[in-house]
Amino acid sequence: MHNIRHFLCFGLLVAITGLPAVAGNVRLVWNASTNPIVTGYNLYFWIKGGVATNKASVGNATSVTVSNLVGGATYYFATTTYDSSGLESPFSAEAVNQPPTLNLVTPTANQLWTNGTFTVTGKAGDILAVGAVYYSLNGSGWTAAATGNAWTNWAANFTPTPGTNIVQAYAVDTSGNISTTNTVKFVYLVRLPLTVNINGKGTVNPNYNGALLAINENSTMTAFAAAGFAFTNWTDGSGNVLTNRATLQFTMLTNLTLTANFVDVQKPTVNILAPAANQQCTNGTFTVTGRAGDNVAVRGVYYSLNGSGWTPATTTNVWTNWTANLTLTPGFNTLQGYAVDTSGNFSPTNTVKFVYRVRLPLTVHINGKGSVNPNYNGTLLDVNLSYTMNASAAPGFGFTNWTDGTGHVLTNRTTLQFTMLTNLTLTANFADITRPSLSIVTPPLNLRVSNAVFAVTGKASDNVAVGMVYYSLNGASWTAATTTNNWTNWMANVTLLPGTNTIQAYAVDTSGNISPTNSSKVNLALPPPAFATLGSAAYADGRYAFVVSGAVGYEYNVQASSDLVNWVWLETNTVPFTFVDTNAGRFNQRFYRSVFNH
Question: Looking at the predicted structure, is the pLDDT value of residue 477 above 60?
Fold first, then answer.
């Protein structure tokens, strides 16, 4: 402590500042020529106001490493000898692990630059000496800068990249300490024109076409379709699709071309001016006229007549007007037309129906009794148009069907719907459904007559005509009667049988209808012209046989009795006939008689 105080008295004091702000080893160096260190000297360090510590013997060295210094403190040091003279030898020392300093002077932060070359400038310093300065542009390798005044100022030339550039630099001192890296961003503005094309109808906002934009700078444009158009995509100069969104974010490049593409989505229009709806024509050829339009351009108009294939129309003024020549079909004709624009859009199909009138006479027949309404017989009707007739039967008749000229049945309904054709013939058929009537005039019912031959008479009638009258006597087969006045009166001669005779008759009209059957009864009460005669009698094997004779064609009863009082009926038959009594052998005597059968 004595030596230290002695040191202080002489004021041989050197302060060491700027030591590293961390605890650890520090190497101190000095100039041996101006601050010789004599063998045996010691170096002392202390904090001002503190006690000397960290004595180190330095000998003839020009540097020494001292351990365990407190970071951030200001140290004082001195040397002294421990010889008998107590002399002190002054010297200087420096802390050599302090990093150098470096500043970028140009460019400044966010500086705008428009030249193709740039000179970076800066300053560097160190407590001893700067050894070198290194710089890097946009992350490239580190390159040594240049100086003309021991790095007090330094510079470097480089070629910037259009857009934002990043310059970094650091210094290295002669002790190998490295400064903090300094970084500055600046912008190299290279402005070139942008080409913006619009394909289709639309706008872009902002429209940078021809504008000078900075290379590598990001910009935005938004596409807006015009009425009738739709935005599709953005493409570059090679036709590559960049995005199908309306807003395009892009980075400016050399020779950049951008195209906003819009497609026509509006359908064209087409109108048929002639013919008008339901127009009536009398010529077989017709020239159709119409109009077509589009927001861009019509490519063509196509038409179809009566469902035929689509045929291109013609125009002389780019489809403002169009025409087509038609060959018409008699009756209704249906014309359709549509337009196609140059973008491939189709218009709605327009349809017009009109009539080509070709009138020809219709032949209408009525078969039977009835009428048709309206009766188009001989009327000129339009070919291929539809018409209707109703059939009504006359009293006593019924409608059956409609037939054509070949007899083919069209319908059995009274209402006929038909399409007029060339040489068309229609027939309404009615059938007679009324039964004829018949009466028997003679004989009146239950007439008694005495003559066997009798003339039956009657009357017959029909709403059309009686075809025949048939009669039957006593259930015999039906026989045709005769007439002299178309069956207003009819007659038939019959031969009656004794007793009650039944006469039946019916009429058939020319339509095949049959009248109800009429009948009458007549009683033939003729006295027999002669009594019965029994002859050719013979008895054999208990049988008795004889022949009964009398009025020819009349019936006689054969009766038998054993006492001539009580008579038993045995047989009735028409004379002449042979009677055989198979029971005759049972009687001792037996009497026979024949009685006229009334």
Answer: yes
As given in the structure block, the two tokens for residue 380 are 């000129």
Look at residues 146, 100, 165 and name the one whose alpha carbon lies nearest to residue 127. Answer: 100
Residue type, 564: L
Q: Which of 141, 145, 148, 165 is nearest to 156 (CA)?
A: 145
Final residue of a structural domain among 506, 524, 542? 524
Task: Say how far apart CA 86 and CA 402 lie, in whole Å.
Answer: 162
Give the pair of three-digit tokens for residue 330: 């008699």
Average pLDDT over residues 261-275: 96
* 407 and 379 fall within a common domain: yes
Q: Where is the domain boundary, 133, 158, 188? A: 188
How far apart (Å, rounded) are the C-alpha atoms in residues 127 and 249? 52
Intra-chain end-to-end CA distance of the chain, in Å: 204
> What tens digit of pLDDT does each residue of 396-417 get?
999 999 999 999 999 999 999 9
Q: Is 528 helix (H, G, I), strand (E, B) or coil?
A: coil
Ranges of beta strands (E only) in 452-517 are: 453-461, 466-473, 479-480, 489-495, 499-509
Give me the pLDDT at residue 70, please: 54
Q: Which domain holds residue 292?
A: 269-356
List of E strands, 228-310: 229-236, 241-243, 247-251, 257-264, 269-274, 280-281, 285-293, 298-305
Query: pLDDT tens-digit profile of 81-129?
Result: 433 333 344 444 444 467 899 999 999 999 988 888 999 999 999 877 8
Whether residue 515 contacts residue 505, with contact meaning beta carbons closer than 8 Å, is answered with no
- Chain mean position to CA 482: 81
Rounded to an integer, the average pLDDT of 66-79 is: 55
CA dihedral 563, 569, 571, 576 (to 10 degrees): 60
- Cross-strand bridge partners of residue 333: 354
* CA nearest neighbour of 556 among 577, 525, 526: 577
Residue 373 has, within 13 A of its CA and on its CB side, a CA count of 4
CA distance 480 to 460: 13
Question: Side by side, which strands form the sheet with 350-356?
Answer: 280-281, 350-356, 331-341, 298-305, 311-312
For residues 346 and 375, membership in a common domain is answered with: no
| Confidence band for 445, pLDDT divided at 50, 70 and 90 | confident
Give pLDDT tens digits for 232-260: 999 999 999 999 999 999 999 999 999 99
Average pLDDT, integer, range 131-159: 94
CATH of the domain at 34: 2.60.40
Judge contact between 482 and 489, C-beta under 8 A: no
* DSSP label at residue 585: G
